[in-house]
Records
---
Amino acid sequence: MNETELFETLIQSGILTEQDGEAVQLSSEFESAVMEYSDQMNTETDLRVVLEEVGTSPEHVDNLVSIADDDPEFVARYLAVRDQAETLEFVESVRVLILLDQFSEPTPPTDGSPERFFPIRGERLPAMLAIFPVTVVYVWREQCPDCDAMRDTLEAVFTDNYDQITLFSVYGPDCAKMLKDRYEVVGGPTTLFVVGGEIDARLQGAHVEEVVEEEVDKSLTTAEMQDLL
């Protein structure tokens, strides 16, 4: 399902609502559902049971339970999405969560994000890395010539290839402490190659296409050795 089809599904399911035929925002029904699931998660309710009730496969339940400790809002939103858009597969549901952040404050900056990379808020990063087996994370900042150069390199490398890899971008200044504490990222541009939730390699600064392609191939080899692909 492409982004246009996904967007239409969100309108039809009532997760998003149109105002005056133009502006789009989160529906009050969806926001109420998120609050209800958040309240459930704050009680003695067995989260595993709730996740299974909305059709989450066993292989993803463990990940979402662990994610709930760091990012309970993400899991509450996931439950609300699954509840209102039952036809979506798991990966599509996660893509929806990324898309919905564009309708919530603060929205993640996108100016320095390479094409084909999903701009996400920094606090979403641990969840994304736990869910997707192989990812590339690009951390950027503004007024940074090296960031501009690395963005161009990443756009050249990730065109229509490497479909096994999920691509994220993070605006570093919005979450500098978290990036330093959890991922030892101390500046931008930094590019992380992550396999199975663990950093397999990193590139600091701008690099040419061949260097990026070499690290990507190494990460794919690591993922194959770990039976993640």
---
Amino acid sequence: MQKDTLNDLFDNLKGEFDINQPNEGHENRFLDKLKASDSASVDSEKTSGFNWKPFLAIAASLVICFSVFATLQSEPEAMDLASVSPEMSEAQDFFTATIQTELKKLNNERSPLTEQVITDALNRIELLEKEYQNLKTDLNESNNDQRVIYAMISNFQNRIDILNTVLEQIETIKELKTNNDEPKNTI
């Protein structure tokens, strides 16, 4: 049935169809109009939509800054020997200065012969330094417990002892080297 009505429709419109060729440049004009309508719709989309990205980035940065600030404020400062009393402050200054002096001496003695001894000593000193950091935390938590204070003093003394022992070993190594290098007078 529909087939008949479609045939009838086309039969009735015979001769009214535009079968002529379009003017030259028609395709270019059509493409220009199409591009113009596309760019107009893109422009309207850009102006109509609100861009939240910059505001979200700023908000995230502020949240991170405030959380870091709050974290730093809430952590109590780790106490050390100097915070216990003025006498302990003097003792810590003395130990620290002595250790620095001994470390300078040790570094001045570096040579291929002494490198291994010095490296081992510095590794032990580093372990004692980490232990001292733990003792600082313990001192803070124990509210100036005398045992922790004695352990901190002992830690400083152990570091100085290690440095002195290594310097003595280096002197022995140098003496042995000198004795081995001297010509032997045998008669």
